[in-house]
Amino acid sequence: MKKDINKEKFLSYFNNLDEKNFLIKDEKKRKKIFDFYQKNDFPNQKTENWKHTNISQIFKSSYNLNYDIKNIDFEKYLIPNLNANILVFVNGIFQKENSKIISKDLIIENLKEAKKKYLSIFDENFEKTEVSLENNFTALNTLFADDGIFIYVPKNKVIKENIHLIFISDGLKKKAFLSQIRNLIILDENSKAKIISSYTSSKLSKNFTNAVSEIILKSNSDLELNILEDEGNKSFLLNNNKVFQNKNSNFSCNTITINGNLIRNDLSVSFKEEFCKCSLNALYLADKKQHFDNFVFVNHENANCKSEQNYRGIIDEKAIIVFLGKIFVAKNSQQTDAKQLNKNVLLSDFAKVYSKPQLEIYADDVSCAHGSSTGQLDKDLKMR
């Protein structure tokens, strides 16, 4: 069998890493993930859920993993007048001196430190979703991610202050930078929090950010996650979020994508118990030759759950948008209420949208609907 050059090339970037820094130290678990990586190819246009997204340009660059971080204006990435806990990462490395924690009931650390301080919580929840086996990018992230964020909201605690996570990629002008971010977010029973997650990068340099987040919501917990993606014109971002919801939990996610060369969002939500709710919304504004891809999967594997998807965008010039949304309703998932909507407006004759909402239903007592529309503005429309 011919060796996959891309797989060998990406593995070579991590040859000199110290095994002491690996997030998974169990050899059997590491071997399982590594074997998965070796047996599978990176997603390509023959992969069903990636067929409208050509990621070959990611592999054309050679990437740097380490260099000195200098002259970054951190102030410009803050949200004015926002009362928030702030955690800053540059190229996947935690910037303690530019971060601050103001909430007393919140346990929040960079992932490396959390593994030492909260080992039992970490071991119980890290890789609980098996996100490593989604594709070769998530496998690489799990094997070699350098750092990320650990958020734990204890039982019966409501965090009133926002939690603002700022992930900055800042590569050299002539050399691309690869950063791998791994996040673990856990809300215990009857807890509540609001997170803002910002992904941004230098407008001049080429960067590749491979981000993976696991989110575990225990019974009666409530999380609002707001994702802002404002990457550079030469940057690639793969952002994979996998969510497990337990009984009567509520999850809302609002994703705003406004800039970047190629951005792929994978959002997967699984209802592990009854009476869960999720609301997934997105706004994307694409122009030039930008390519934004949203893959959304909601797994109704238990009864009496409700989900809503509402993805909308405006596309100009030669930009391309992909939306693939899937709702799966298992046989025992009666009283399911699921809705899915994708709407797009094209501002040029060259902009493209590939939209495919899907329903797969095996229960008979359900209320499910989906729809998609793409159109241009009326050329005779006059400003009033």
Question: Which structural traits does this protein have?
Answer:
384 residues; ten-stranded mixed β-sheet; 20 strands; mainly beta
Description of the molecule:
The chain has six helices and 20 strands. The protein has 384 residues and is mostly beta strands. The chain has one domain. The strands form two sheets. Strands 1, 4, 5, 7, 9, 11, 13, 15, 17 and 19 form a ten-stranded mixed beta sheet that branches. Strands 3-2-6-8-10-12-14-16-18-20 form a ten-stranded mixed beta sheet, with no helix packed on it. Helix 2 packs antiparallel against helix 6. The chain is globular and about 55 Å long. The model has no long low-confidence stretch (mean pLDDT 92).
Write the layout of secondary structure elements.
Blueprint: H1 5-12, H2 27-39, H3 56-59, E1 63-64, E2 84-90, E3 93-94, E4 107-110, H4 111-117, H5 119-125, H6 136-144, E5 149-153, E6 162-169, E7 176-187, E8 192-201, E9 207-217, E10 222-230, E11 236-245, E12 250-259, E13 262-271, E14 277-286, E15 291-300, E16 306-315, E17 320-329, E18 336-346, E19 352-361, E20 366-376
Helix pairs in contact: 2-6
Please provide a brief summary of the model.
The protein is mainly beta and 384 residues long. It has helices at 5-12, 27-39, 56-59, 111-117, 119-125, 136-144; strands spanning 63-64, 84-90, 93-94, 107-110, 149-153, 162-169, 176-187, 192-201, 207-217, 222-230, 236-245, 250-259, 262-271, 277-286, 291-300, 306-315, 320-329, 336-346, 352-361, 366-376.
